Structures are given as C-alpha cells and as structure tokens.
Amino acid sequence: MKRLLLSLALAAAVPAQAAVDPPPVRALQAPHWGDGLFFFFQDRHFDALSALMVSQHFDRLGLHGDEAALLRGGLLLAWGMHDEAAAVFERLLTDSADAAVRDRAWYFLAQVRYARGLDDEAQTALDRIGAPLADGLEPARALLAAQVALARQQPDAAAAALTALAEQPYDPSATTGPARSWWARFWAWLGVSLATDPQGRPVDDAPLYARYNLGVALVRAGRLDEGRPWLERLGTMPAAHESQRALRDQANLALGYAALQASEPEAARTALERVRLQGPSSAKALLGFGWADLALKNPRRALLPWQELAGRDPGDAAVLESRIAIPYALAELGADTAAEAAYSDALTRFDTEQQRLQATQAELQRDAWLDALVALNPADAMAWSRSAETLPPLPHAAQLAPVLADHAFQEGYKTLRDLQFLHAHLSAWQGTIASYRDMLAHRRAVFEQRLPALAAEEGQLAVAPLQRQQAALETALAAAESSGDGQAFADERQRALQQRIARVRAALQDLPPEQQAAHAERLRLLAGRLQWDLAQAAPEAAWTTRRALQASASALDEAQARRQRFSGRPTDQRQAFDDFARRLDALDARITRLLPPLQRTAREQAGALQHLALAALQTQQQRLGAYAQQARYGIAQLHDRARQPLDTPEATDAPR
C-alpha cells in the first residue's frame, strides 16, 4: 500500500489533468450502472462496489460493462486489494475488444504491479500501452513511468519520461471545464486535489509538477546543471493558487539544499529566501538559510532565521536543530557567555520536551486514546482517502500531531477503521438475517394457513365434465355445419316462429278443404322465408360459435394447467422456503466465522498503531537526546576555550 500511496502522492501533485479531463459523457443505458454511480457519487463506496459486483454477476450492465470494471478495479486498487484489482484488469485485457479500454487496463495494472514492488513487471505493462491514454491519464502515465524508472535505479529514464510533459507550455488561465464525470469524481475520491481558477474551474497544472519531478530526478542523478533550470523556472514563476505556491516553495527548497550540498551558499541563499515565511516548507528553508549565511562566514546574519525558527513548534526537527545552531553562531561571534546561556536554554527546552514525550507515551500505552481518535474521525464506510485529522484530548497533544501526520500511521489508521467498519457491517447483517428468518417463518405460516382454502377452491372446479361438454358442443357444431340448413343456429325468436308455424300447420287440418289451400300457401311462404333467413345467417353464426368454443377450450386448458401446477405447488413452495432457510443459515455461519478473525485483526492493528506511535515518539526522544548531547558538547567546548590562553588558536566543529 505504501508504494501505491507514493504513486498517488506523486500523481497528486500531478494529475490535475488526470482529474479534470473526463472521458466523453455516454448516455446512461443500463439502470444498474446508474445505481452503482448513485452510491459512488453519494460517497458510499462500499455500497457502490457491492452494487457493481452484483450487477456484473448477473450481467446487467450492458454497454457500460468496461466502465464498471474500470471503476471496480480502481476502487479495489485504492483500498490496497492488489490481487483482486489485478484480476479485474487482467480480465478486461482478455474480454474487452476496445483498444482504449485495454490501454487503460494496462495502465492500472502497471500501478498495481508498482505498488506491489514488481518494478520490472510494471515497466512491461507500461510498454504494452499502445497509444496516448485518453481520459486525461497521459500525464499520470508519464509520472508513473518516471516512478518505475526511479525504482529500477534508472534516473536517466525517469528524466526522459518526464521531459515531454515538462516541456509542454503552461497557461495558467487555461481550464478544462468543470469535472463532473464519475472519472473525475474517482480521482477526487483518491485524494487528488484539483487546482481551480477564481471561477472554480479546474486548472491543468500537470506540466508544473512534471518540471518539479524532472528537476529533482536530474539532481539525484548528479546532473545538477541540467536539473537546476527546471527548478529555477518553478521557483520564480507567479503562482495563481495555494497548490502552485506550495510547489514553488518546494522547488526553491530543493534548489537551496542542492546548492548547499554543492558548496554554493550564495546560490542557496538566493533560492531559499524566495520561500514564504509561512508555509509547509518554511521551517526547512529558514534552517538552510541560516546555514548558507554561516557558510558565507556571516554568523550574525545566520542568527536571524534561526531565532525566528526557534520560536516555532518544537515537534519539527528543524526547530530543534535551530536551538543548537543559535549558540554555535553566537560562539562564532565570540559571545561565549550568550552561547553558553543559549546552550543551557536549549538543554532545558529539550528536557521539557522529553518530559512531555514521556507523558504522551504513558497516555498512548492505554487503549482509550485510539478509540477516541476513531470516534472523532468517523467514516460511514470504507474510505481510502479520509485521514485522521482531529486529535483526541491528550496531554501535550502537539507531540502526537507529527506522529499522526506520518504516512505509515495514517495508512494503519485507515486499515483499522476499515476493519471496524467491516465488523460493524457484518454484525448488522447478523441482525438482518434474523429479520429475514422472522419474515420467512411468517410467510411459511401464512402459506400453510391459506393452503386448505385454496385447495378447496381448486377442488370445486370440475374440469373433466366441462371438457366433455366442450367436446359435445364441438361435435354438434360440426353436424350443424354439415347440414347447412342453419336450424341449429336459430335464436329464441326464430325457434318461437318455428313452433308457431308447426301449430298453424296442425290447425289447418281442421279447416274445410276450400279454406286449407289458401292458408297453406301463405304458411308455405312464411316457412320458406324463415328457412331462408336461417340459411343466410348460418355461416356467421357458425364462425361466432366456433370462436366462443375456442375461447372456452383455452380457458379449460388454463384451468387444467392451474390444477396441475397447484397440485405440485405446496411441495415446491415448501422446498423454496427450505432452500432460503438453508441459504440464511449458510450466510449466518459464514458471518459467524468471519467476525472473530476481523475482531482479532482489528485488535492486532490497534496494537500495531500503538506500537507505531510509541516508536515515533521514541524516535523523537532519540533525536532530542542527540541534540542534547551536541548541546553539552558545545558547552564543554566553550569551557575548554575559556581555559585556553587568549592567543591559542581554536578550532571548533559545528554541532550539526
């Protein structure tokens, strides 16, 4: 994890462009991808990762599959889960047909390998990137290539990797527009701060950071003459915002100390006096400024920055060193009495500081302070980029501030917080599983309660007699269609007319013969008209009847299928209840197995943090002891010089 953080730290000085040059916005085409993004933009990263993994398992992401894989791998990478992240990126290299996606996967895989110390393999991954990376990753790629080269003891290759980016023209007014994509949000979550203009729009500072890293790489390679111009350009540039001012101070600080090592005190003084008096680099700059004046044989002038520095936070090593540098400068001026008093004052301050460190150590040996630290710096979920910033009430808490600001402690603290989150998350799931068991028992009881009534309702539906009636009706319809006379399709009115005609025909037999002929003809005409009407309506009536019989046949088939399904439903439903109960039991057993190791690991991590903090305080104590020893040696030198004749030449060494 440490190397990953070094990578991201250098890229944090860096990927302003990586953060502010988002990929082209693609319309959301998969609701489940939107679901994962919703959690991500809500800073619920654990939920986002869970949603992405579930959606990938059920293949719900559609065209967003590659984007989801990149985000998932990036989340895993940021949490230091290198094996899982590598598996995601390697799967992308195999499955994705998009060359741009494969190039990005190679880049992230190179980050994973670099973080795991596989420097040669990381270089191989970088070499596999075929084209300039999109999405603003090209500057980050150049910086990663430089880091890998430095890790492989190849400073010249690191300088070559940074040169192209460093030579890009820098326009402080150029912006890349607001960064609102999930890609930019991901960089921001990683802790990569964005430089902004007065309107709040991101500014691309990547070339500036490349110049700084290039200058430092060249200086480390022993090529001071080549590295100095890059640092000079940064050290004299106008700064538009705080991150640029901090970078300018760092460049001047690097220039100043490089000049001191090269025995160029005047050049060192020129560079160091450009560093702000209030800033993260000011203490080291004041210390180096004094040593530059001392190298110029001007101890009186050296006292000014050291006296300013001596009044600052004693937790800073530069402040402690200034307290023994002041008496040395006074001794150089011949003010032995003042020098001895300053040495004695330094010893007193060192002793006071030692006592404070001892009191802080005693407090750190208790567990309560770490619980208070976690309580004061909460996180709702696993949060890689959220550090511990608020100190609990401790005696001499200022002594602990440098310890907590240390990278190793911050990473250990994040690990402890993640372990505690996972323990709380799994414990909550135990309660959730209990709720699921209650719901399952309730549903099982309701099912068994309603089953007899449903069975009775289904039993009342006799499908077989209805199916026999259906067959008889279909036979009758076929016979009616064969006869073609339409008698079978007569409606109620027509049947009444047929009956009336039959009665009239019978009544004609009782009439005299001379009357029968006239009435019989009229009856024949009426019967013919009725027969003609029936014949005309028969095709339509047959079609309507057949449609109705088809619908009833379908209804009977559905009823029969329902009866068949219902006959097996109780057994199937009981089996489903049993399967779900077994799944809950398996999850409960798995959580029960995971909780003790998590709790044990959290205790071990808390112990490791406690040990780390105590070790850091012991380091401060050792440094104080070394400075106190130098102060005593300085006092002894002054006493020896006081006993020597005035004409005896003296040679003293600076207690640096």
List the helices and strands and how they pair.
Layout: H1 2-12, H2 16-20, H3 31-41, H4 45-57, H5 65-78, H6 82-95, H7 99-115, H8 119-127, H9 138-151, H10 155-166, H11 182-189, H12 206-220, H13 224-235, H14 242-261, H15 265-272, H16 282-295, H17 299-310, H18 317-332, H19 336-364, H20 368-376, H21 397-405, H22 407-460, H23 463-483, H24 492-507, H25 513-643
Structural class: mainly alpha
Helix proportion of residues, in percent?
over 70%
Give the strand content. Answer: under 5%
> What is the N-to-C succession of helices and strands?
HHHHHHHHHHHHHHHHHHHHHHHHH
Q: What's the tally of helices? A: 25
State the distance separating the first and last CA atoms: 35 Å
Number of strands: 0
Integer-rounded radius of gyration: 44 Å
Biggest beta sheet summary: none
Low-confidence stretches: 1-25, 174-180, 187-203, 647-656
Multimeric status of the protein? single chain
Give the overall silhouette. Answer: elongated
Average pLDDT works out at: 77
